[in-house]
Structures are given as structure tokens and as C-alpha cells.
User: Which sequence fits this backbone?
């Protein structure tokens, strides 16, 4: 894997594919986290509280 401190070269196919892979994995982790949270009763309650309008 490319060392992030070495820089990024958008013309290097290896750099581009590695960055795309990292972004796909991050996106998949975020989706998995949300699914896990929504499968928990407490998680759904927590999100409802976050989405509820606040008294201003």
C-alpha cells in the first residue's frame, strides 16, 4: 500500500485504485454501522432524539 506521507499522484493508477478502495471500505463501514444502530431499539431511540425538533 502507498505511504500517505509520500504524497498522492492522481496520474498513478495504483494511487487512484488504492484511494478508491479505501473510500469504498469506509463507506461500507459507515453503512454497516448505521444498519447495526438501527437494529438496536436504543439506537433507534437515540436517532429519534437527534432528529426531534429542539425548543429554540
Assistant:
Amino acid at each position: 500500500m502507498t505511504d500517505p506521507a509520500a504524497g498522492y499522484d492522481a496520474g498513478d493508477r495504483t494511487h487512484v485504485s488504492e484511494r478508491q478502495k479505501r473510500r469504498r471500505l469506509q463507506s461500507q463501514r459507515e453503512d454497516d454501522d448505521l444498519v447495526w444502530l438501527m437494529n438496536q431499539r436504543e439506537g433507534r431511540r437515540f436517532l429519534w432524539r437527534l432528529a426531534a425538533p429542539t425548543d429554540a
In short: The mean pLDDT is 90.
